[in-house]
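Record format v2
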Amino acid sequence: MTDRSNADANRWRRLDDWDARPLRQDLFAAEDPESGFSAFGGKNDPKPSIEISNGSVTSMDGVPVDQFDMIDAFIAAHHIDVDVAPEAMAMPSDQLARMLVDMNVPRTSLTRLSKGMTPAKLTEVVAQLNAMELGFAYSKMRARQTPGNQAHVTNAKDDPVQMAADAAFAVALGFDEIETTMRVARNSWSNALACCIGSTVGRPGTLFQCSSEEAEELEIGMAGFTSYAETVSVYGTESAFIDGDDTPWSKTWLAAAYASRGVKMRCTSGAAAELLMGFHEAKSLLYLEARCLCIQRGMGSQGTQNGGIDGAPLASSIPGGVREMLAENLVAVWLDLECASGNDARHSESDMRVGAKIVPYLIGGSDLICSGFGSILKYDNSFNPSSFNGEELEEFLVLQRDFEADGGLTSVDDARGLALRRRAIDALSFVMADLDIATVTDAMKASVAVASGSEDTDSFEPRDVTVISETIRDRGITILDLIRSLHKGGFLEEAENLLYLVKLRLSGDYLQTSAIVRDGKVISAINDPNTYQGPGTGYRVSEARRKELAAIRNVLTREEVLRFESIMQPLEAKRIAYNDMGPAERGTDEREVVVGISPGFGIKMFKTLAGHPLSAVLGVLKRGIETGGGTMRVVRLMHTADTSFLGLSAARLSGSGIGIGLQSKGTSVIHQRDRLPHSNLELFSNSPITSLDHYEAFGFNAAKYAKGVLPNPVIVKSHGEALGARFHARVALIYAIETAMTESNASPIDVGIEFLEDLL
Amino acid sequence: MIGKPLDAADYPVAETRPETVKGARGRSLDDLTLDAVVNGDVTMEDMRITPEALLVQAQIAQSVDRTSLAENFERAAEMTSISQEDVIKIYELLRPGRAASGDELLTAAKYLEENYDAKRLASFLREAAEVYERRGLFQVRF
């Protein structure tokens, strides 16, 4: 990195550092409203307007009825409530914007008004909110009070064995919905069966969908394998809609078809889809999305998956694109739709951009925070990598813990996670054998159970899966066959869970807005409506839930610190003896360097944070001091554990006036008796990266100071490690143990050091 | 559907009035046990939602001012009896450029009325025919 050959180049090398960061792989596009590259305020965005005559819309957003395209016509006929429109359209947009962020204005007064508002009006209102206001309004306006989340469960081989195991793990994490899709379209029936079985392990009620071709998806739903669908795509321009091979009427037909089969359904739309398809009409992302959402409400869809979705990366390349996605989510919930709020297709190579984008949704809650959190590894995600994937799962769990915000997920104990995976694999294997679909060998089972992703498995290949899938389809296997087979195999709980899921269809309760299943009960915007009206209202994390959010993997406790140290004690006892020699006096030897050790040094604490045994640290210090021409005397200071005072007290006892303060955790200082406490000669503050060589050089320098020579200070080079994050929890626990041992009036004690084995 | 329409207080229906929830063959939630499935007494027909259940959900949606969602449930109620094949066939017909003229949609509308008494769906197809005609959506696409 330190190539100095082009020191005369006319370019600051920091730019190379920036170029090397993942961020620079993201493409950023200039704002260009004529070419459709505008988040808000497109070149051809219309001004809001409406004219109504004899109970029907005669003009909308500046377009007279005889010039309506099919989208205008659909919105005018099915979305606009002509009784509310005159009132809503007459209200000033800034007043409506303020109402959205006013906690005293109930959600329902705003949803009522939205039904009389045109796409241009909705756009004009939400565009007035800044990012924080959008996030707040979203939190207030979302339909269901309890937040939820959705996972992708897919793999690169379409391997049903892994699919079942991963589905079970996703269910254990708490996902309310899981969604699969295939690498090879023909594998859909296999994916559906495998995820369906996996999702029954552990608890009932996780909704499941298999994203595939419309007619086939409906067929799979009819066979009972899936319980919801969300691939009913809607577009904001007529040309894009037609290019997508549909119309608002064909999609409305599909919406009714799903409901008629007792299957939950939501639409999909999102910023920049029209731009990607080349039919943007020079209109802004937000305006086009507002049109999509008005169509969806008009269709009678209970909800939407929006917030960029597949267009998220393109939307994010435009100035304000991420803010726009928040704005379009707000329009969705304002229109009283369930919102699966995107945060799926990864919009950036920068983890920091991804982390920042999720925050408003995590802290404000959402019906489904991610409409595809990749519960599997990135390369196994057949939808493309999500914002969060198997790799980043623990980051999400920690963010929940940090903000005490409920993102819908709960940590799964390692052993339980593996047990659930095995149970799902066994259940699937039994059913496949019992129904004479395929044979899963013990070796396949074993490799999948412990595999992090499909690259580690020795299981079915896509070609095998095609045969499996076609067998399932051609034999007309239904969910009832699965239930019977699970029962036969002794998987009674799974059989009951699957039966519970398919019986949900009969009442249709889960067809209502924002419905999910929690603890065996359907909750939705009807029996769990968002009633936020300020602090103390709306969704609050209960004490029990707070504890769940806090319980992540590998949490340090005081007991654990002490346990670790107690393991070290016998090892150190073999290497060094600390013999108390009575009260320490001021020395007279002018070559002497006094090392002041902390109260617990070698008594309760035995290793530095860098992992060096304290015996070794003392050994190299001694060698360094002696090489520098000095002698070492060790005193234990009982009145303080603070590094500076350890050093200063040691210096005051030293015949040369030079002392070293040394804490158990390895922090150390060279002091001189006439200096102010915090004005030391040298300091090793980053003990986790301080090596034995550093300590030896430190001893050497101390001896030089004792002789009145000015040596080159020892610098411990850091590479930018977040040492506080890595060590401070341990530091605070160790330090508290040592400070508890101090006695304010206790005198220093001379310690005779006896090295029991040859350390050097 | 006699008496006062249901509203949010009656939701979830499977919890507040489970005895009213039945599958397409008239069997109740309590009848649809694991034993019954294992004994082969249950068919997929028993797991099909009924038009009555969808109309109840429409009432509930209407009670919380979700008119368009209620209308979807009402269309769905009509669709419950329509065969899978016909559902897909008409969906296909509604896609751009599939029907050569409005007549095909109007014929389908008549078919739905005559065979399934599906008035809402029929009028929905007629509405589509009108817009498609005006927007040139009957043009065959290649």
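The CA atoms of residues 10 and 17 of chain B lie 8 Å apart.
The two ends of chain B are 47 Å apart (CA to CA).
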